[in-house]
Specification:
The protein is mostly helical and 204 residues long. It has 2 domains: 7-102, RNA polymerase sigma factor, region 2, helix turn helix motif (Rna Polymerase Sigma Factor, Chain: A); 110-203, Winged helix-like DNA-binding domain superfamily/Winged helix DNA-binding domain (Arc Repressor Mutant, subunit A), CATH 1.10.10. It contains 9 helices and no strands. The termini are far apart. Residues 1-13 and 104-113 have low confidence and may be disordered.
Length: 204
């Protein structure tokens, strides 16, 4: 780790304790400590941004904008949820706003799917109950290929579930929604993904 900002010295405390200490120092005005928080969460934020916006050339700028927002708003962080969840909520909202502004036609990746993969995706999407572990693997594998044309709201919830592998409860916390609302939206997003897949198959 790089040099400690503003004379911060840590005698190898637990990671959570380090994070809490850095947050409190930033909240007290020691902005240099925020560099450690960036280092701790940068990889995950970048991955989330990439999966949501799907433009490598934009990831760096968007990630920086997210951390700037977090830095400016860190005094509002109250430790009720993890800092990662709080930061994830900022990242998700920022990316959602970006996607809504873009609204561009995106390249379809449906052609990359096998007939067997398409069939399993349909079966998983049409079920009212939770998918089986096998179906979850199939959906996760194919979701990235479908996300290129998904609406911003659908992409948000599908990325968190299928790519970030977050639980429904974690997604609810990040998006500030009820658990049942997340379940409904996830089911509808999968259904819309299925409808797009069927349209593609009809054109083949």
């Amino acid at each position: 780790m790089k040099g400690e900002p503003n004379g911060i010295r840590m005698e190898n405390p637990p990671r959570d304790a380090q994070e809490v200490e850095w947050i409190k120092r930033v909240q007290r005005g020691e902005g240099e400590a925020f560099a450690f928080l960036i280092e701790l969460h940068e990889r995950r934020v970048r991955a989330l941004v990439f999966h949501l916006v799907r433009r490598r050339d934009e990831v760096e700028d968007i990630a920086q904008e997210i951390f700037i927002k977090a830095f400016r708003g860190i005094r509002s962080y109250n430790f009720r949820s993890s800092f990662g969840t709080w930061l994830g909520r900022i990242a998700a909202n920022h990316c959602y706003d970006y996607l809504r502004r873009e609204q561009k036609a995106r390249v379809s990746y449906y052609w990359q799917m096998s007939e067997e993969g398409s069939r399993k995706l349909e079966e998983a999407a049409e079920k009212q109950d939770a998918p089986t572990p096998e179906e979850e693997v199939v959906v996760r594998d194919l979701a990235d290929k479908l996300l290129a044309q998904a609406p911003a709201g659908d992409r948000m919830i599908l990325v968190l579930k299928e790519i970030e592998d977050q639980s429904v409860e974690e997604i609810a916390e990040v998006l500030n929604l009820r658990v049942n609302t997340v379940k409904v939206r996830l089911h509808r997003a999968r259904k819309r993904m299925l409808q797009q897949l069927k349209k593609w198959r009809q054109r083949r």
